[in-house]
Amino acid sequence: MESPTALVSLIIGLPLLGFLINGILGLSSTAYRSKKTLIGILANLAVFIPFLCALTLFLNFDSESAAAFAHLFTWMETGSFSVDIAYQVDQLSLIMTLVVTGVGSLIHLYSIGYMAHDEGFWKFFAYLNLFIFAMLNLVLADNLLLLFLGWEGVGLCSYLLIGFWYTDMSKSDAAKKAFLYNRVGDFAFLIAIFMIFETIGSLNFEVILTSLEAFSGNDIFWIGLLILIGATGKSAQIPLFVWLPDAMAGPTPVSALIHAATMVTSGIYLITRMSPMFVMSPEVMMIVAVIGALTAIVAATIAITQYDIKGVLAYSTVSQLGFMFLALGSGAFTAAIFHVVTHAFFKACLFLGSGSVIHTMEHVEHKLHDKGKDVHFDPQDIRNMGGLRKYMPSTYKTFLIATIAIAGIPPLAGFFSKDEIVMHAFNMGFGEYAGAMYFILWGVATITAFLTAFYMFRLTFTTFHGSFKLPKLINGTEGSEEYLHESPATMTTALWSLAGLSIVGGFIGLPNFVSKTFGGDGHINWLHEWLHTIAADIPLTLSGTAEWALMTFAIIVAAVSVYIAYKMYGNDQQEESDAWIASKFGPFYRVWKDKYSLDELYEGAIVHPTVNFSDKVLAVFDMKIVDGFVNAIAGTVRISGSLLRYIQTGVASNYALFLILGVILVLTILLF
Amino acid sequence: MDTFIFIFLAVLTIGSGLGMVLNRNTVNSALFLVLNMVSIAGIYLLLQAQFLALIQILVYAGAIMVLFLFVIMLLNLDDERSLFSKVRAKYISAFFLGVVTLSLILYSLEGVADLLPEISPEMETAGTVEALGDVLYTDYLFAFEMTAILLTAAVVGALMIAQYKKSNNGASE
Amino acid sequence: MIEIDWYLALSAVLFTIGLVGVLIRRNAIVIFMCVELMLNAVNLTLISFSSYHGDVTGQILVFFSLAVAAAEAVIGLAIILAIFRNNLSVDITKVNLLRW
Amino acid sequence: MNYLLDLQSFLPGIIVAVAGLAAIMLEAFKKSANTSFSVTIGGIAVALLFAIQSLYGEAGTAFSGMIVYGGVGAFGSVVVLLGALFCVTISREYLRDLDLHNGEVYGMILFSTTGMLGLAVSNDLITLFISLETMSICLYVLAGLMKNEKIGAESALKYFLLGAFSTGFLLYGIALIYGATAATNLTEIAAAAQPTFLFLCGTGLLFVGLFFKVAAVPFHMWTPDVYQGTPTTITAFMATAAKSATFVAFVLVLTRMLPSSEIGDWQSVLQVVAILTMIVGNLIALAQDNVKRMLAYSSIAHAGYLMVGLAAGNEAGYAGVLYYLFAYTIMNAGAFGVIAYYERNHGLDFTEIDSYAGLGFKVPVMGVMLSVFLFSLAGIPPMVGFIGKYYVFAAAVQAGLIPLAIIGVLASAASVYYYLRVMVYLYFKEAHKEYSLKTPGFLFKWTLILLAVLTVYYGVEPVLPTSSLMELISSYYTV
Question: Looking at its record, which EC class is this enzyme (chain B) (predicted)?
Fold first, then answer.
């Protein structure tokens, strides 16, 4: 394959260019800000053209191709340490680039309609382009340092976009929370980078992965653990996941793009990239798997109790990310990436669908205000909805398709990826290290899959089936259903494209055993073939029969779950059914509803004691000693600055005096 | 003979220099400086730099100092009683710094006489106009041209600064 | 025969007199004259070296230094005129709006 | 001797000088300041092209060894001409508002630039002296442009008196060096140099003269007063072009005249002065409330960082200094430009930091650009200022001067405070009263935008890596 430098420059450069054009022109000219069509088209092209470039690269690449490098320039160089702006095009980075730019393009398209009435339209698109730029740096980087820059860049953009409506206090708080939790993870990641550099003397992936023997077992464990902590921050896993649900405060396209499809999967990308190193430490693998499974079930149970349409989706995202971590921990790196891809499709579709719903509910509220009715309701609360399928058929159909996909019903995308993960977890049960633990994790995963189908159908049925409940719940909203409407074409186009991908997306990873059973060569899992040079997968050792049994079991679980959900929520019984669950599960339900009190736990276990301790003990120490010291230094600096300036008396002969002092100083140094 | 002339001129130079610094009357100071420059020109003659001795008198004593005197008269600044610094500490520190600087320079002059024992015999010809002109327009052409720019700039600049209340809008004057 | 030391020392003394003058005088014109004295002192050093080296470069340098002194005199006196117009004085201790 | 070839080697300077004469003639006979302005821009631009061309040519000496061409000198010329060009393009509107717009100003700027170009290529102490004086005399005049204001005349007087005073030391230094070696040519001096007290004293005094011009502590006292009392765009010219020219001359002196560190301990002098300059410059800048004066102290601090590169005394250090000059010219011209813009709207008092409250939102593009320039001056990546600092400090570490590098990094960390303080006023303080700002003119605005883009661009992609600058330095070893 010829050098990809030109294409990579385009892929990386165009989003940056889009950001600069929209940012600078928007900042400097108010006239430009109102040209929303132009802004939207520019921003879209800045992502869509890179997508085409990535597609070109992809078509010229096959599973056996060696990685191609695009070294744009060396930023700085001293001795052995250099900062290279260099990109690596290989099977893994191509998949990620396609997802980022492809899903990114669709979400950009959707945003034109969604943000049409927002004042900060130009700013929004500038940020989105910047995000794409940072994300592409992250997935295409050929060294850890550049990856880290992209990693920080996406964090920054996420912070800016969550707090996009920064005038709303709770939203800027959510932004701060996301920022802080991410810093904890980033710090760990940075230490890991230092440790790697210290041992290998290079941060280049190729160099690191070919000189893994330089690490002691202990090093591998600690580096792996630190990278994992970094990944848990960015990919919202226990213990750092609490920021993600709050992050849904941002505009919905942001939730879809950043907090579902791309940024939050960067932790999975990073671990897959480093997979040859991770498989060397079974302990870390197990920790990864446990964290993943635990996050999956914790988030799924919380999701059951939520009423906020985006809240359910947020916890669902956390839960699905948990699945991906379980896959990583089970040595199924390909399956994790597979799930990243399919999840990007259906979750983006779900978020955008929810955005469409919220959009119309807000429209209803505005219309009512226009009519002079002073009513307030939460446009995101599913209890106010119901029966929307009549009014927004496209949104309904796409939402339903995506729900079926995430629930794991064949042959939609989610089924294949999730099944592969569960199967690998089961397979690891026969492994040498902590086998029993993996059987438990398999059980947890299966229960989570059941819960996933359940809460997703609960959400769909409550929102779209039955009757529109707002008029019954709130006075003054009678007849408001007439204001419900389908979203504009830019939005539905994006929805339908993503729904289509949710249907067919799974075919890139068909299970191999199916082919074997029917006399094939057992190589129908295209993704597996594609990534085999990069992902250090632990192979499946199960027999064909066992695999068939597991798959059938998974289908049954999902089907039963959907059936139960239909029975409980299919026809306006949301209130009674929630109450029934609450009574059945009693204390558990309360725990779920309180989100395991994790926010309070962090508050109570870490923040409060720290504050108390610092109040009582540290404060004294701080005030008397540390503060005193710091103030003394700062004070000395400021005072000496203030005093020194009075040397400058304004009289020229005094200046000459200092000049002569300088002469004496210079001559003294030279002559003696 | 040379020695006596030197001592005479040296005393004259230093005396007139001190006179310039210490005299309260600005016109007197300027006249002391003229005297100082003339006596320095005499020392140039001792050093066999005839041409420069001539220019010293013409340019410095003749042109530059006349300009000084002209400005002093123009501004009517003859008496400076009030303009003498009253702060004693300043005299002391200035004197102290002067002594230190002088001693550092004198210290560095140690041993020069051994290296350069006498006036070079070539000076018979080297101090003449021909000798100077010969190198000035060849080897030192660059500096010479730069000096031309310097003097042009000085004349224009002096006009710019000294013009009184020139109205600057579009150079109407 | 006078040794070069004497010329150089004389020059150094003159230089120092000018230097001290700059420090203690308050009249801008006199300060400027002190600077001229310093330049003269340096010229003396240059000519002494030139003569004892038997090298014409030093004299060339003095030539240029004279030109520079002339240019400085023109500019300097113009500036002093401007100061006098604004302040009706050439006392540099009164010219201290810009400080700290 | 082939004079044509000699003239060609100083072509940029000649073009600029001729343009200067033309500007003055046009003013005298046609009374057209705008024509002078165009001639000035054209002259500098053409000179810049020739300077860039000679950057790629070979190095050598001309005018009987009085000047060098190519190599470091060519790079210095490019930086000086860039500084001059930017300052002239932002000057027109500003000077018009101050009622100072006339051809003589441009003539002075051009003559001064000629001097700087001579300084940047000087290979002989006589060239150095005359060029330095040509530059300075024009700058004295420019400092006194606002001669009808008290502060204008005052800044000219201070600059002039102290400048003339320091010239005395510079000339004395040259005299003593001449006495010790019987030469004024830099390479001849290097060949004849002996570690006598005479020679050391001479170099010390020569350094004093150069320290004064680059505003190193304790020779810096004129800087804040002069910068404050000079029209702001002219201040930019002094702070960028003049400083760059002097530093290039410094590099030439150190590499060509004092290549051997066994003769004298120049590195210690440079180190001590660098430390003093960084500390004092930054400390006093912390206490300033006038933005222009703050920038004056900050320029002193930057001279300190540059001195770190000189003190390193290795090729990396000199290359770092050259790069830093380029970076400093871009970002400082920009910063002064934006300040000139604000000042233009509300008179000369409008440089107090208090009056900057809430300004950032007034004309957003100006606020953003000022932020970019200040970030760069503070040395925050990815701005060009960071790269410059990185190179000089890295060179110091390479030379084993780790304490010096640490002081430098600490000092520049402290400097972040006063740069950010301006930004806090720009964006986080409420404006005292409602007012609107003039729209910046086309040339003015786009010059600043170009500078801001360059500031970021060279911060992201330093296309002048030190290695090729080192080649420029080593290209002189044989000539």
Answer: translocase
